[in-house]
User: Fold Polygalacturonase-like from Nelumbo nucifera.
Amino acid sequence: MNFLLPLLFFFFFFNSTASYNVVSYGAKPDGTTDSTSAFLNAWTGACGSASSAMIYVPPGRYLLNHAVFSGACRSTGITIRIDGTLVAPSDYWALGSSGYWLTFQGVNGVSISGGTLDGQGSSLWACKAAGKSCPVGARSLSFVNSRNIVIRGLSSINSKLFHIVIDGCQNVYLQGVTIMASGNSPNTDGIHVELSTGVTILRSNIMTGDDCISIGPGTTNLWIENIVCGPGHGISIGSLGRSLNEPGVQNVTVKTVTFNGTQNGLRIKSWGRPSNGFVKGVLFQNATMENVQNPIIIDQNYCPHNVGCPDQASGVKISKVTYKHIQGTSATQVAVKLDCSSKHPCTDITLEDIKLSCKNQNVESSCANAGGIARGLVQPSSCL
Ligand SMILES: *[C@@H]1O[C@H](CO)[C@@H](O)[C@H](O)[C@H]1NC(C)=O
Ligand SMILES: *[C@@H]1O[C@H](CO)[C@@H](O)[C@H](O)[C@H]1NC(C)=O
Ligand SMILES: *[C@@H]1O[C@H](CO)[C@@H](O)[C@H](O)[C@H]1NC(C)=O
Assistant:
């Protein structure tokens, strides 16, 4: 055991992590006192620390208003350990029209460990459902223009808009995230990624009212594995091609996902309008569908209310997309729908080892402007 002593000395002298407890900055765990400035002051302390830093949030409920945690920081590593719940104002006008609740911007080496975010979105959803005049809502947690981010064991419930957004980031690792909102809550996407490279999402459970994971323009080298999704709208690449000039989506892997009662399973969706966007190199592997309305779907004719899509043909070029070992049940007869652009047909689509069925009817597949090959058992039989 004589190796222990030098080890202890090492930690004692060299691992000096500065600690910032939000309560000592005046945060109140009572759920009603506004603790925003306490959190921001703890952040300023940690961010300016010469060593690595830890922000600690003890158990309790902390009411936070709109807050931006900005870099660049002097500290090279900030861990935010949350044992409590961060609560958004339930008044949906309180966060203004910024569209964001908690945002990290321009940071490098930030980890969030544990904790719950409570977006208190239900009154806003009700306002939207009633067709009243209401704000668009706020994304609960966003990382913008940041690098080397870890989010582990975080729960997000009842967001007003998207739950977690990764935008303009590099090297982001999310693991063991739990997302929960009502199946009919509008625009409450679970995790949204765009303009980002090297994002990994593992072992997460997502129940929400919109896409479990949505993948926007400019996403590259994305890895998604071991996800349970439902209720929700599935895992979606898109919507893409809303703009004429748009960066593409490249090298996406989605592996071992269970969809339960979702609107879609594995979806690629683009607006039916001109764009130079693209999707290239996607592997969808080992998914289980339980009563999913559209288990496999490419929809390049997205055009809500038929407005702004002059010729209904998408400019987005889709190529090299593989569906491999996808099984389970479809809630509708068309279990595989590949509806590609008439101007830019999908190329190099592979269907391999697909086994989808439907309770009381035969399943079929439907293709438009889609090219590629089928390998091994493919049921419903391939229309490629
Ligand atoms: C594709 O992305 C994965 C991470 O998801 C990465 O490991 C791999 O190197 C990337 N491939 C290419 C060709 O960039
Ligand atoms: C495929 O998915 C199932 C769960 O649906 C999982 O148990 C199994 O380990 C996965 N297989 C591989 C090779 O990842
Ligand atoms: C799917 O969801 C239903 C209802 O929410 C639940 O009863 C069922 O156990 C789930 N199935 C799986 C395989 O998780």
User: Anything to note?
Assistant: Residues 103-379 form a domain with the Pectate Lyase C-like fold (CATH 2.160.20.10).
